[in-house]
Structure formats: C-alpha cells, structure tokens
Specification:
By secondary structure, the protein is mostly beta strands.
C-alpha cells in the first residue's frame, strides 16, 4: 500500500512564455522598513513589501533578499495572518495573459529563474477577467521563463489539484450539439 507521501504533477504550457524582457530589468523593493547589511549583502524588508522586476510583482508582509558573490539574488517573501504572499507575471502571448500565485512562502532564485511557492500554494493563468488554468498543492515549483510547473503534495488525502480550461473560445452549448444520425 502506497502511503501518499508524494504526488507529483508536471504541467507544461507551450502556448505562451513569460516576458523575456523581465530578465534584463532591475529589481525594485518597497516596504515600510528596510534593514541593510552591505557586508553580508542581505536586506530584510518588513511591512507591505513589494518586489518588482519588469512585469513580475511579488507582495508580502516580510522579505529577505540575499545577493550571492556572483550578483544573483535569492528572495524569500512571506505572508502574514491576514494575507498570503502573492506574485503576478505577464506572459508573452498574442493576448494579454498573466500567471498569478499565492502561498505562505514564496522563494525566488534568480540564478535558475525558479519560483517556489509553499503552504497553501496556488497558481492560476488569466486573460482579462477570465481564468484559464488553476493549480493547488502543498508546494509548486514554477520556472518563470519556461513556464514549467511541478506540484507536490504530501499525505493520503491532500492531493495536488489541477483544473485546465478547454481550448475553445466559448464552451459549446448543449443545444448546439447535433446527433450523428437523422431520425425519420
């Protein structure tokens, strides 16, 4: 009997990709309070934290930013009791689309362009006011520029859940469906 320790779901989207121009943008930080440690290249932001890089926007209650010796950033953003940490990024597609995510903790590593959402992890794709795809799990790993996901959930009753929208512009109506035969 398999004790549901791990459920892995990999979703690959090839219809659009993240804005490539985000990679060349500077990272901007806003918060109520910022503590800098230039010796360790560590920055702690608290209160109404906003991290922005191009179309990428991450919000939370607290963030820790560490810059490694090669200049790459590692960013950890946590939510608080009233709101989860969240991120949004515009996708490079023929229509204006966004990927949105939420979780108790969001980790971003610039070197690999990987975003990890843990604790009540959720992502969705939207176009205008309409959502397209949704994913829930204990942890979601998301590559910002290849749009590859990996969702992991632990436990027998806590599965990773995904809902993919149909590729129709509009769902077919029941009365529009014609039978394959003609009655006489």
């Amino acid at each position: 009997m398999l004790i549901g320790f791990l459920l892995v779901l990999t979703c690959i989207s090839n219809s659009s990709q993240a804005l490539q121009s985000d990679q060349s943008k500077a990272t901007q930080f806003n918060a109520d309070k910022v503590d800098f440690n230039d010796v360790n290249q560590e920055y702690v932001l608290t209160g109404h934290v906003i991290v922005q890089r191009g179309s990428i926007l991450v919000k939370g209650a607290k963030a820790v930013v560490v810059v490694d010796p090669d200049g790459f950033q590692k960013i950890s953003v946590i939510g608080d009791t009233s709101q989860l940490a969240e991120f949004t990024q515009q996708l490079d597609s023929t229509t204006i689309e966004f990927i949105h995510g939420e979780g108790e903790l969001i980790l971003y590593e610039e070197r690999t362009d990987v975003l990890i959402i843990t604790g009540q992890a959720f992502t969705s794709r939207s176009s205008g006011k309409h959502w397209r795809d949704k994913l829930n799990a204990d942890q979601i790993q998301y590559n910002l520029f290849t749009e590859k996901y990996q969702a992991v959930s632990k436990g027998e009753q806590n599965f990773a859940k995904s809902l993919l929208s149909p590729k129709y512009k509009e769902s077919p109506k029941l009365f529009d469906v014609k039978p394959n035969y003609v009655s006489q």
